[in-house]
Amino acid sequence: MGRNRGGKLAAKFAREWVRPVKKVKRRRRGDPDARPTRNASPARQASWRARREADRQQANGRTNGTAEAVTTADGRHTEVSVSEHPNNIYPPHREVSRVLDSVPPNLRAPWHGNCALPQSLSRLLDQGIDPRGGAIGSARIRAPGNPAHGSHNPCCNSCISLRNAFDLREAL
User: Fold this and answer.
1) The pTM is what?
2) Between 94-101 and 116-126, two packed helices, what is the crossing angle to 10 degrees?
3) I need a labelling partner for 36 at 20 to 30 A (CA). Which of 8, 102, 135, 142 fits?
4) What is the dihedral of CA 26, 31, 36, 41, to 10 degrees?
């Protein structure tokens, strides 16, 4: 019997004693730049919309700044804004102003209140839409050909307080 290991006896033994291997179905991952589906997470939707706004601003000739999108928890409402000069910003909602005023002066960013996030939140709140529990996505606006264009821009100290006060998740 010892001489027949490579023959029919070994094959019969292998079939009887070895469990069949389960095939694992691999999840297909789509193109990260593809439009998110209706069932996509709010973070995915916000991130995609921020990158699209950054592309649109770049096509209009803008070479710096940040595009930001806020998507509600149900994923139905998204508001997109761009960081602007202090003379062009959307007036902040009273809840947004209250949170921004609570940031200690030594922790404030030099552009405190002129970011895209306070504008996006103010627009949603003025429309009567509660953004709490939603997600935010941000994208850098850079000159054409710059590899940093469209990449994630983390929240500044002023916006971190807004993110925490409205219980928003930051999409990367």
Assistant:
1) 0.76
2) 150
3) 142
4) 50
